[in-house]
Amino acid sequence: MPHTPTAPVILGNEPGSFPRGVLAERHPAIIRQVREAFPYGPDRHGALDALLANCTKGTIEPLPADAHDRDLWAEWGLAEYTGRSWYDIPWLWSESWFYRRLLDAVGYFTPGPWQGIDPFRPFKLAELDAPETDAELAALDDLTDLPAADRARALLHGSLWGNRADLGFRLSDASADSKEAAPGLVADDSDTLWSLLPPAGAGTLHLVADNAGRELVPDLLLVAHLLDHGHVERAVLHVKPYPYYVSDATTADVVDALRRLVSAPGAAASYGRTLWSAATDGRLTIRAHPFAAAPLPFAHLPTDLRAELATATLTIVKGDLNYRRLVGDRLWPPTTPFADVTAHFPGPVAALRTLKSDVITGLDTETEAALVAAEGQRWRTGGTHALIQVRP
Ligand SMILES: O=P(O)(O)OC[C@@]1(O)O[C@H](CO)[C@@H](O)[C@@H]1O
C-alpha cells in the first residue's frame, strides 16, 4: 500500500492565526481599495457593502440561479459549505470564494458597463509601469555576456524572487517592499530542475503562473530563455480565467507584459520578440482553465488538465497559493517529504515559491530548527524566504 500522508486542513477560525487575519482584515482592505479605484455607482457600492458584511460576519450563500458557473461551484463543494461561516470551512475554499463574490459585486460577470472590467487592473498596471520594472529589465543587458547556463540560473532566481511580494500581500503589509530577501533558500533542488531541462530537450514546459507584473515578467524571461536555448521545444503558460487574488495573471496581463517587453530598450525586447514569435507559431500557448481559479488542491485536478500535465517534461508551479494547492493546504510537519505530498501530481513538478503562508514541506531537520531558532514561526509567512523543490 502506498503511504498517503495527511495533516489537518487549514481553516480560518484560529484566533490570531494568519488565515484568520486574511479573512478578517485583508479581504475588507481589498474591498476598500477596489471601491476607491473605480467610479462605481450606488448599485456597485451597495453590492460591495453587502459583500463586506457577508465575508466578515455572514455565511456562505448560494450563487444566483443564473450564474454561469453554478455547475462548477456545485462540483467544487458549494452545497457542503452553504450556510456555514467563512471562518469555519477550509481557508483555501473561502479565499477563492471571496474573489468570486467580489467579481459579482463589481459587475464583472453581469451584462453592462462593468462586465469584464478587472477590478485589480489599476494596481497591476501601476506595477508594470513602475521604475523598478524598468530597472529589472535594464539589468538583463548585464546578463548578455554571461555563459548561457549562468544566465539560465540568474533567470530562474529572477522568477523565484519575483514571487516575493504579490499585490494582495502588499495591501496589508506596508513593509513588504522594503524587506530584504534572505540570502539562502530553505530548500534548493535546482540541480534536479536543470537535469530535467537539458539543452537540446524536445519536450514541453508547463508553467503555472502566479502574479502578473513583476512576477510574470521574470517568468516570461525564463520561458523565453528555455525556448531560445532549446531546453524545451514548447511551453504552456497557465493563467487564471478571471481576476483572482488581486494580482494573479490573466491572459490580459500576459498581453500587457509581452507588450511591455517588446517595447523595452535593450536585451528585454529580444526576449519579448522570442515569446511573441513563439506565441505566433504555436510553441508558446496560454491556457486559462476554469480549474486554475478553483478552491481545491491540485490532487483534484480535472481529467483533461491531468492528462495534459501528464505529458509535460516538467511543470513549474509558481508562488505561494499554487504551492498550497500543490501540496494540499494542510499543517504538515515541515519535514514531510515533498515527494510524498506531490505523489498525486501527474508528472515531474517543481515549486518556485517565496514563503507567505503556514504551509511547508520538504525541509530538513537542521533547516527547520535554524529558522525556528532565529524567527519563531514568522519565517513561514513573512515572504523573506524562498524554496525550489522538485519531484522528478
Ligand atoms: O500565491 P502568491 O501570490 O505567492 O501569494 C498569495 C498570498 O499572498 O495569498 C494568500 C493569502 O491570501 C497566501 O497564501 C499568500 O500569502
TrEMBL record:
Q: What is this protein called?
A: Protein-glutamate O-methyltransferase family protein
Enumerate the cofactors the protein uses: Mn(2+)
Q: Which InterPro entries match?
A: ARMT-1-like_metal-bd_sf, ARMT1, ARMT1-like_metal-bd
- According to the lineage, what is the superkingdom? Bacteria
Q: Which Pfam families match?
A: ARMT1-like_dom (PF01937)
Q: Point out the signal peptide segment.
A: none
Q: Which family does it belong to?
A: Belongs to the damage-control phosphatase family. Sugar phosphate phosphatase III subfamily.
Q: Which residues form the Damage-control phosphatase ARMT1-like metal-binding domain?
A: 23-368
Provide the reaction this enzyme catalyses.
beta-D-fructose 6-phosphate = dihydroxyacetone + D-glyceraldehyde 3-phosphate; beta-D-fructose 1-phosphate + H2O = D-fructose + phosphate
What keywords tag this UniProt record? Hydrolase, Manganese, Metal-binding
